[in-house]
Every structure is written in structure tokens, then in C-alpha cells.
Design goal:
With 320 residues, the chain is α/β, with parallel strands linked by helices. The chain has ten helices and 15 strands. It binds NADP nicotinamide-adenine-dinucleotide phosphate.
């Protein structure tokens, strides 16, 4: 089969399309024919060798994908060849024509969700679900700011929070992104590259502030986020690309708190909860993964460059 291999950590150019043996499923394993693989920002940090999780080299990147079950190993009972599935982590990497997974890493893909959309389910929706429901314990009627709402996680959070009955404010850095965020359920949108947008945002809450913030770029925004919070407000740090300074008194005076999460550190029980909630939302169509770009697997390097550029508009997916 064809697969992307990383033989040394480095820039996007280390992603090379190679011919490798197609894996065979052992006991408890499933072989999935990948129709689309999702690119996440963490794939780029891992490829560069700067992520806390460093896979042994060479490796094939990718934890997110969707396709059909090709073969199952002994003892597998939850899926059979031909089933449509999305994958949430793999044993051999999703940037390939086939991926080997454990039985509990494949999940049914509802019929209304196509394969490219299915490649944008795991990391974005699981992160949004965890941040809203488990970290922040969001409640209907609360006001939420999704700071960075136009990307994979942001859109997932906007759709989910809208369906849960929160008032959703979302930011994006382009007109196209703002339109998308509004269309997917934000009640109000703000451009995070326009000076003065935080004052406008605060004004829109009548000076009360927001109850919750999901933060995609904490190194840039955390200090200001704390000043936007209402009493007992919560920030969940989802993304950060550097250091930052905060004023602790902003937290003290509001009895506020900062939470942080890492999808790789959640428990098995939490993971089961995430999938149950996500699949129900996909079936009900309150969750609708948005695909911004489909590019050939051979151009994975281009995907890794583009995922870190601004102007996000949903997911970038690779088609083997
Ligand atoms: P993505 O699809 O690349 O989207 C990035 C988002 O950040 C876009 O909405 C982008 O908006 C926005 N952004 C750019 N500049 C911003 C600013 N100054 N303030 C606020 N937002 C800004 O990435 P993603 O998959 O949604 O992931 C978002 C971040 O969370 C990444 O850093 C990722 O590594 C991290 N993450 C963490 C976890 C975890 O477990 N903790 C899980 C998933 C993702 P425009 O492009 O419209 O400007």
C-alpha cells in the first residue's frame, strides 16, 4: 500500500509517500481501508519532534480517518468487513491507504456523514466535547466565547454549544471564517485580527462578561481572556504555542478558574462517553463536520504547511 512515512523529525518536507507492506489484523485488531485522513495541528508538532509524544522512527502520522472495514482479526465482534467507520487513533497511522487499529479505535460512521467529514471527527469533536462537558461543565443559558472558532475544534464547539442551549460568541480572522462560524451556530462573531474586537465583544455582553471561554491560542489571548470573564467564569486552554503573562488578580476578583486539557491524557471511561455523545450528535445532525479542503495523500507536506496558516475554514483532509 501507499503510506506517508516520516524517517526523521523535521519540516513538512520529511513527509514522503512510500510503498510499504499492507498490515494484517491480528487478534482483536481491525484493518480499515482509509478513504480520507484528517490533518490536525498536533500532527505537525509531532513531525517536527517538538511534541511530548515522540513516536519511534520511521512512523506514519495521523490519528483521524474514515473508511470501510477491510478485514478483522480473531475475536473482533463489534465490526465486520464493509462497515463504514471513523477511526480514533490507530496502530499504524491514518496517512495511508490502510490503517490497522484496535477494535475499540473504530466507531460507526452515521450514513449522513461522508468519509471526508468522518476524517474530521475524532480530535476536533472529542476535544470540543471534553472541554465543554467535562472540563468546564457548560450549562444551557451560559454565554460561551469560542476564541478561534473557524478551525476544526472551534466549529465543533460552536455546533455543540448551540445545540446545548448556550449563547455562543465566536471569533475568526477572515470574513469567510466569520460567515462560517455564524452559519454553524454562533449568535455573534468577532474578527480576532481587528484592533478593539475585545471591547466590542465585552460591550455585546452588556459589560457582564462571558461565563466560559474555549481558548485556541492561549499564549496570545489568555491575559485578556481573564478580563472578559463574568463572576465564577472558566477558561479552558485547548491550544497554546508559547508563553504568556497573566494578572492573577483578574482571576481572584472574579472567583474564576483556568482549566486545561490534553486529549491524549483522558481516561478510557471518558473516551467512551465522548464517542457516545459525538455519534448521537452526528446522527441528529447537530454535529456536521466541515471540510475546508481535500488534497491528495501525496501532498501531505502542503497540508502540514496550510494547517498552520490563518484563514482556517474547517478541516484539511488527505485522500489516499
Ligand atoms: P485549526 O483548524 O488550524 O484552527 C486554528 C484556529 O485558531 C482558527 O480558528 C484560527 O482562526 C484560530 N486563530 C488564529 N489566530 C487566532 C487568535 N489570535 N486568537 C484566537 N484564535 C486564533 O486548529 P484546531 O484543530 O481547531 O486546533 C486549535 C488549537 O488547539 C491548535 O493549537 C491545536 O494544536 C490545539 N488542540 C489541542 C488539543 C488538546 O487536546 N489540548 C486538541 C485539539 C487541538 P483564523 O484562521 O480564522 O484566524
Amino acid at each position: 500500500m501507499k503510506a506517508i512515512l516520516v524517517r526523521e523529525f523535521g519540516g513538512p518536507e520529511v513527509l514522503k509517500l512510500e510503498e510499504v507492506p499492507t498490515p494484517r489484523p491480528g487478534p482483536g485488531q481491525v484493518l480499515v481501508k482509509i478513504h480520507a485522513a484528517g490533518i490536525n495541528p498536533y500532527d505537525t508538532y509531532m513531525r517536527a519532534g517538538v511534541y511530548p509524544v515522540k513516536p519511534p522512527l520511521p512512523y506514519t502520522p495521523g490519528s483521524d480517518g474514515a473508511g470501510t472495514v477491510d478485514a478483522v482479526g480473531e475475536g473482533v465482534i463489534s465490526v465486520k468487513p464493509g462497515d463504514r467507520v471513523y477511526v480514533a487513533k490507530t496502530l499504524t497511522g491514518a496517512y495511508a491507504q490502510y490503517a490497522l487499529t484496535l477494535e475499540n479505535q473504530v466507531h460507526p460512521l452515521p450514513s449522513k456523514v461522508n468519509f471526508s467529514q468522518g476524517a474530521g471527527v475524532w480530535v476536533p469533536y472529542a476535544t470540543a466535547y471534553y472541554a465543554l462537558n467535562i472540563s468546564a461543565r457548560a450549562r444551557a443559558g451560559e454565554t460561551l466565547l469560542v476564541h478561534g472558532a473557524s478551525g476544526g475544534v472551534g466549529i465543533a464547539a460552536v455546533q455543540m454549544a448551540h445545540a446545548m442551549g448556550l449563547k455562543v460568541l465566536g471569533t475568526a480572522g477572515s470574513d469567510k471564517g466569520l460567515e462560517l462560524v455564524k452559519r454553524e451556530g454562533a449568535h455573534q462573531t468577532f474578527n480576532h485580527s481587528t484592533p478593539g474586537y475585545l471591547e466590542e465583544l465585552m460591550k455585546s455582553t452588556g459589560g457582564q462578561g462571558v461565563n466560559l471561554i474555549l481558548e485556541m491560542l492561549a499564549n496570545v489571548n489568555l491575559g485578556q481572556d481573564l478580563k472578559l470573564l463574568a463572576k465564577r467564569g472558566r477558561v479552558v486552554i485547548i491550544g497554546s504555542r508559547g508563553d504568556t503573562t497573566i494578572t492573577p488578580r483578574d482571576l481572584m476578583s472574579r472567583m474564576a478558574s483556568v482549566h486545561a486539557m490534553m486529549l491524549w491524557a483522558i481516561t478510557e471511561a471518558e473516551e467512551s462517553e465522548l464517542h457516545a455523545g459525538i455519534i448521537a450528535g452526528l446522527e441528529a445532525e447537530t454535529l456536521r463536520p466541515i471540510v475546508g479542503k481535500e488534497i491528495p495523500l501525496a501532498e501531505a507536506a502542503r497540508g502540514h504547511k496550510e494547517v498552520l496558516e490563518s484563514g482556517a475554514f474547517g478541516k484539511i483532509v488527505l485522500i489516499p
